[in-house]
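hey team, just a heads up i'm posting the complex here instead of the shared drive bc the drive is being weird again. everything in one block, sequence lines first with there labels, then the predicted structure for the whole assembly after. its two chains so it's a bit long, scroll down
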Amino acid sequence: MGPRRGRALRRRLSATIIAGAFLLPNFLGFVIFTFGPVVFSLAASFTNWNLMKTVPLQWVGLDNFLKLMQSPDFHRYFVNTAYLMLGLPVAIAGSLLLAVILSQPLRGVVVYRTLFYLPSFTSGVALFILWKALYNPEFGPINQVLETLFDWAGLTSVKAPTWLTSTQNPLALAVEYAGFSPDQFGLGARDAIIIMGIWTAVGGGNLLLYLAGISNIPQDLYEAAEMDGAGACSKFRHVTWPQLAPTTFFIVVMSFIGGLQGGFEQARVMTLGGPAGTTTTLSYYIYVKAFEEFQIGYASAIAWILFIIIFAVTLLNWRFGSRYVNY
Amino acid sequence: MKYVFLSLFLVMSALSVAAWWWQPVAENDRIELVWCSDDNPMRREQIALFNQLYPQYRLKLDPQNSTMEKVIVQCLAGVGPDVFDCYSGFQLTAFVRSGIALDSTEALLQRGVDPSAVWPCLRPLVTLDGREYGHPDNAHAPAMWFNKAIFDEAGEPYPPNDWTWTEFIEIAQRLTKRDSRGRPVRFGFIGYWDWQSALAQWGANIYTSEGTRSVLDEPKACQAVQFMQDLIYKHKVMPTPTEEAAMSGSGGWGAGAQGGGIIDLFGAGRGAMAIGGRWWLCLLRNETYSKLRLGAVELPRGPSRRVFGGGRSTLVNAKSHNIEGALCFLEYLHSQPWNDLINEQADALAPVKKYNYTEGFLYNPEHPEEDYNAVWRSALENAEPMQVSAYVNGQTVDRILVEQLDMVKANVKPATRAMRDAARKINEAIVEQLRLDPELREQYYAAVKRGARPAWDREEDAP
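-- predicted structure starts here --
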């Protein structure tokens, strides 16, 4: 080994050690606070682990999972979770529309961008309390506007929704079981949360991703389209939309994951999962089972079922969604 | 680049050392005790008095972690408080069965604390299987508040102490006021939808006396809950959930942790009568309500004269590093200074019975207008402990009941069906709990052998 090669080797070794040293705190944090608990919760899901000391810890195999599959509560809360995700397409479309508008050379565009992004860096709890006031059935501005509109249209018999206190929904989903019940047709707490979610999401991270995506579209594509006589709609359909396909795909995947994991904060702050459990989502149910009813094993099983659902949905997204990504 | 990182590392290290150097120094001659409880101005005075009476300790409040789940998780992790609150017999069972509540029977006796001196309805908050785990902080039983100004304005005589629910409905209907659009201006009755008081008054129970089966599906219980539903939809003297949300500034009941929203609404004259406790005075003595003229009478009589009473108790963390100090705190809760302070502050009633039978309790010279203190004492004399079952998780029961009662309250389900479903689900939860817990199962079968009704109807459903 020549002296030059030895020095190079030492330098590489030293660089590796330094890199490792810098990575180590993060790696240790990941192992201790993420990977370890994940493995631990997987093991816990096969046990009857309960915080009550009189319940002896036992390996129960797939019992928790089987019980979960037969639990009407799990089915109802899964339906709630899926229902709350109905707002995702609207939120994504809203972000895209807003991004297209905000990418135009408007005067004061930076101010607009900041204003639309405001909900994303405002505390969630503050927003939820604000929306609770907006949804006040008698004195909230939303119902005030609706009632004025109904009066103006002569629809005096139509009543504004009671929002957070109502179990109704446009799909007429039943309250106590995963099914339908015609008397539940209307607007209620779940819809109130969806509308609030759309408002928050439209100007949030998705808007930034779309803005970045639009700024990366080469201008010569638009110029070529203009030379071919394309109007604004054609340019959007044939240039912007296909060029944004990877961004949209990423946003859809992340939104599905976020949607399936979501609903906890809203339930905790605005409704406590009510009325009659209609805003209890799977993530809130995990909290209730683990920390209010102390069934850590069972709650871990719910968490893993939720992971499997998210994984399956993400795979489906990759399988079918990626067909629309052309490059 | 590495010099940048190195410099940053050195700066951070220097800042850490500086922060450590300038951290607030504990008073080294005083042992620090941590009490997990809710924060309010009353608590500050209560803590100051302890620190004055026991100068060797410095009691600190931790209001952020006072919920049961947080206390259990923190204590199990070894970072729990020294003393913490307990609000029900179910919570006591949970704290004891999770191994974090200290059995203080002998220690309390040595300190001259007589557990039988407290109000009988408080015993389930501190006693389990004949062992003592703490001491009650205060005592509460519900009575009926009324707003004298509203009664005077309507020319309605004040309600008597001996009245019936039928008379109550008639008065409440006369005092309910709506605007031209039918929107409520004032309700005859406002406040908690206190279905448990109705249950007590109708002579119904949540469980059998041994707690082995839920009996909410029995006719008396269904009638009691039906009565509560009728107050809203038939007699229209109480707000619907929508009207409640509309009247409350933040869009729902209970803006504060203990229902501050309702008290504020009552104080603002949005209701003529309300079921509540003496502790409401903690808020209603506030300058904001200086013009409010209050009265209180016992609850109207139903088929029975029962009420459920309760309160708050303090337990000791078995893993506390300051057991001695924590026991001093329990001793303090039994002492006259604490009990007098509770009565003076109106943080409900003193837990030790004898301190409520004084002139000072009946007539507080600082609040001569409060001429109704005997009502709260009388309510406590008739109070029974809140019903809990040792065989089922109280939080599971709460979840089941909240869901069913939400539907009754919103008029989407009749009371009879809701109570039948609630009883069935609670009984299923009992069976499930027995499957998990062999020790509990053994106790349960022993109770069944003694004649208690099991939670199942068919033998094949037994755990």
